[in-house]
Specification:
By secondary structure, the protein is an alpha+beta fold. The chain has 7 domains: about 1-115, Immunoglobulin-like, CATH 2.60.40; about 120-225, Immunoglobulin-like (Sandwich); about 225-330, Immunoglobulin-like, CATH 2.60.40.60; about 335-435, Cadherins (Immunoglobulin-like, Sandwich); about 440-545, Immunoglobulin-like; about 550-665, Sandwich (Immunoglobulin-like), CATH 2.60.40.60; about 675-815, no CATH class. It is about 15% helix and about 35% strand. Strands 1-7-6-3 form a 4-stranded mixed beta sheet. A 4-stranded mixed beta sheet has the order 9-16-15-12, with no helix packed on it. The longest helix is centred in the last third of the chain and has 47 residues, at about 665-715. The relative contact order is 0.05. The structure holds 2-acetamido-2-deoxy-beta-D-glucopyranose (2 copies).
């Protein structure tokens, strides 16, 4: 192109036609649009143009405009973009020349391009982000990015708009350099809690017609500021807790919220109670708001608690609420038993329904847990009476007896009605005091004691013992010998009783042969007031001692005179020569007699029966046997030591009495002896009968006297010295007289006394049943024996008359038996 210009230069120089044409067209005209009628404007004909081969000379503009020589017009050749051609420069024009040849001519054409609003304002970024604290004050400014518009003039950027305008306003500053700064000004405070993110649209509008605009998003994140206080979800919380809940039990959880964010919404909880001890009992977790138990929850102390909770955030904003905690009772209190009054000792004769103890019950628990029932142990003679609520009295139920139970441990148990029930108990010890309501009781209903005769006086015989169930003085027993008489003699002359110990002493020495037994009563009396007593019968049995030697009854030993038995020489072996009869007033073994020959002539002719005392021949009598034989028989009893008696038996071995006489020089004397014997026997019988009658008279007199005395002075205790008749109580019937005979003797004695009023009661076998009469009858019996005792017979004749007679008969019959063979 330049080359062309340089090449054409000389041509222009040669032919110069200077003309200036100017056109104005808007940019962006469509291709082929008319720019200007250049032929007309230059005053050239189209022929000239064609002939002149008119063309456009340009330094680059030819792409935009073309020349139509035939029509003589300039047409738009390509797109004309003002912004591309001129940027922001105004005015914007295309300069080119139209060159003609033949002649060479050129013309300058200026095509001014006017702007059309074909560009909208634009922002560099599509969005802008801001982080603005909600605490930002109104008036705070935020610089916004400017927009740009390629167009110029009126089409250039004209205004901005910001929407929405709730919080921010737009402020545009026109700078001196023509630039404009735009700012967003906070007009209304932000509230993150209301709107955390906001987006605004900034619109830039140009001045074209129609205007065009461009937008940019403004994204605002509202930053939190601690502008909100915490708020509890409820102002009052209600909850319950059972008492004695363990530490750590969660009671409730309070919650407060804070509209702020992050650390601004961090809430701390605390308890603000000050006057009460709530802070010792509960704690609140400062972060979670969980209220738990830290202390002891006692319903009995406080039935509810009010916990004041404060919630505060870090900025110092607070809220408070209260938590009302109702405490639920638990059965944790045992009933308390209080003894209001109590007697420790109660007399055993106290009436039933007497109040012994008053009790008050208290249970601190509530409702059923505090309802109490009391009862006492079974099997005690007491019961509980419930008076007004929670007062009980313990009263006696039935009669008390110290002897059965002197002490009661009464357990009063009280239990409440809680589940599980709690109970407590108290044991009352009640002593029962004694009343003298028990008489002494002897260990046995009757006593029997043995004492060996010939005892030393003062010997302690045995001990009676009575016990008294009462106590102390009421049980202190003294023993008293009751007045009575034994055989007419006061019993106190026989025995004494030690008052303290009950030991019975023999006062005198006893003789079995005189008294075999006796009985009396001992009274035991306690020390109560009035005293109580009982009595017991004591029977003393006297035991025999071998204190009497056997007594030979036959043959009768008459000092010096010869009593003989005759044995005929023809007598067979075993001929009964004689029989030694002896008795022993002792009894039993002591009276069990045995007979032995003590001295025997050389050639033994006789033997004596060991047990029956019979003297018999043991061989045939021979002529060599001397006529007179003197046998010594020893009679021994079986006592320990044994006692004995000897008897000499003269035996004549002869066929006739004359033979005996011839042998015996003084047979005359013997005959005389026989006569004498008969005489003595008769005399003795007479004497005995006399004595007997005398005896009877004396007895009757004494009896009458005694009877009178006893009427007046029965208890005067005059000592009477008794006599004891010999009695025989043999058993075997060997050698001694049989018992039946003894009995008969007494019968005889009794029948003789049949004129006394007790004569008919002669049999000792009679059993007296009537207890009230026992004493009398006993006395009668005693008197009866006394009668017999008081008949003092000589030792020689210390046998009853009957026996005496019988012995005589025996003697005579023996004699007769001896005579008969003669
Ligand atoms: C009562 O209790 C006391 C003391 O515990 C005891 O010594 C006594 O033996 C008891 N009495 C009875 C009758 O159980
Ligand atoms: C002895 O005791 C009996 C009852 O055992 C009684 O009947 C009697 O009267 C008492 N005698 C005296 C003298 O106390």
């Amino acid at each position: 192109m330049i080359g062309q210009v340089l090449l054409l230069g000389p041509l222009l120089f040669v032919v110069t036609v200077v003309a200036q044409v100017s056109y104005t067209i808007p940019e962006e005209k469509a291709k082929g649009s008319l720019v200007g009628n250049i032929a007309h404007d230059l005053g050239l004909s189209t022929k000239r143009l064609v002939s002149g081969k008119a063309r456009i000379f340009t330094r680059g503009s030819d792409e935009y405009v073309e020349l139509n020589r035939e029509r003589g017009v300039l047409l738009v050749k390509g797109r004309i973009d003002r912004e591309a051609l001129c940027k922001k420069t105004t005015p914007c024009a295309l300069d080119f020349q139209i060159i003609l040849e033949n002649p060479m001519e050129f013309y300058t054409v200026t095509v001014q391009i006017t702007d059309i609003n074909d560009n909208a304002p634009t922002f560099d970024k599509s969005e802008m982000k801001f982080k603005i604290s909600e605490a930002a004050l109104t008036g705070a400014k935020f610089v916004l990015e400017r927009a740009g518009d390629l167009d110029v003039g009126v089409n250039d950027l004209k205004t901005y708009e910001l929407k929405p305008t709730d919080n921010f306003a737009l402020k545009v500053h026109n700078n001196a350099d023509g630039n404009r700064n735009i700012e967003m000004v906070l007009q209304k405070p932000l509230d993150r809690e209301k709107q955390e993110e906001m987006s605004l649209v900034l619109t830039a509008v140009d001045g074209g017609d129609p205007p065009m605009s461009g937008t940019m998003m403004i994204l605002i994140t509202v930053l939190d500021a601690n502008d909100n206080a915490p708020v509890f979800t409820q102002s009052t919380y209600r909850t319950t807790v059972t008492e004695n809940s363990p530490k750590g039990t969660v009671v409730a959880t309070v919650t407060a919220t804070d509209a702020d964010q992050g650390s601004n919404s961090k809430i701390k909880y605390s308890i603000t109670n000050t006057l009460d001890n709530v802070r010792n009992i509960f704690k609140v977790n400062d972060e979670t708001g969980m209220i738990s138990v830290t202390g002891n929850i006692d319903f009995e102390e406080s039935r509810n608690y009010q916990i004041n909770i404060l919630a505060s955030d870090e900025g110092g904003f607070t809220d408070s609420c209260k938590v009302v905690v109702e405490v639920q009772d638990k059965n944790d209190n045992r009933p308390e038993i209080n003894i209001m009054s109590k007697s420790n000792v109660v007399s055993e004769d106290v009436k039933s329904d007497t109040i012994v103890t008053m009790i008050n019950i208290e249970d601190k628990d509530f409702g059923e847990n505090g309802k109490v029932q009391c009862f006492i142990s079974d099997h005690v003679p007491f019961h509980l009476k419930s008076s007004t609520n929670n007062f009980y009295s313990l009263v006696t139920d039935s009669e008390l007896d110290r002897e059965r139970a002197s002490e009661y441990n009464i357990t009063v148990s009280c239990s409440d009605e809680g589940v599980p029930s709690l109970s407590s108990s108290v044991t009352l010890t009640l002593q029962i005091s004694d009343v003298n309501d028990n008489a002494p009781v002897f260990e046995r209903s009757s006593y029997e004691a043995y004492i060996v005769e010939n005892n030393t006086p003062g010997l302690s015989v045995f001990t009676v013992k009575a016990r008294d169930a009462d106590w102390n003085q009421n049980a202190r027993v003294s023993y008293i010998l009751e007045d009575s008489s034994v055989n007419g003699v006061p019993v106190s002359s026989y025995v004494s009783v030690s008052a303290d110990s009950g030991v019975i002493h023999a006062v005198r020495s006893f003789d079995y042969e005189q008294i075999k037994d006796f009985q009396f009563r001992v009274k035991a009396q306690d020390g109560g007031s009035p005293p109580l007593s009982s009595n017991v019968t004591v029977k003393i049995l006297i035991q025999d001692q071998n204190d009497n030697p056997p007594q030979v009854l036959y043959p009768v030993q008459t000092g010096g005179s010869v009593v003989g038995e005759m044995v005929p020489r023809s007598a067979d072996v075993g001929y009964l020569v004689s029989k030694v009869v002896a008795v022993d007033v002792d009894s039993g073994q002591n009276a069990w007699l045995s007979y032995k020959l003590q001295k025997v002539p050389d050639r033994a002719l006789f033997e004596v029966g060991l047990q029956n005392g019979e003297i018999r021949t043991i061989r045939q009598v021979t002529d060599k046997d001397p006529v007179n034989q003197k046998l010594t028989v020893i009679v021994e009893d079986n006592g320990q030591p044994s006692r004995s008696a000897t008897v000499i038996v003269n035996v004549a071995v002869a066929d006739s009495f004359s033979e005996v006489l011839s042998e015996v020089p003084d047979f005359k004397h013997d005959k005389e002896y026989n006569d004498n014997l008969t005489f003595y026997l008769v005399l003795a019988l007479a004497v005995v009968s006399f004595l007997f009658i005398t005896c009877l008279v004396v007895i009757i007199s004494v009896k009458i006297y005694r009877w009178r005395q006893s009427r007046i002075l029965y208890h005067s205790g005059l000592p009477v010295i008794p006599y004891y008749p010999p009695r025989y109580s043999d058993t075997m019937g060997t050698g001694t007289l049989p018992h039946v005979q003894n009995y008969e003797v007494y019968r005889t004695t009794d029948s003789r006394k049949s004129d006394f009023q007790f004569g008919k009661a002669g049999s000792q076998n009679v059993l007296f049943m009537d207890p009230c009469c026992t004493d009398t009858i006993q006395r009668k019996l005693n008197e009866k024996t006394a009668l017999m005792r008081e008949c003092p017979l000589s030792p020689a004749a210390s046998l009853s008359p009957y026996r005496f007679l019988m012995l005589m008969t025996t003697h005579l019959s023996l004699r007769g038996a001896h005579m008969r063979p003669t």
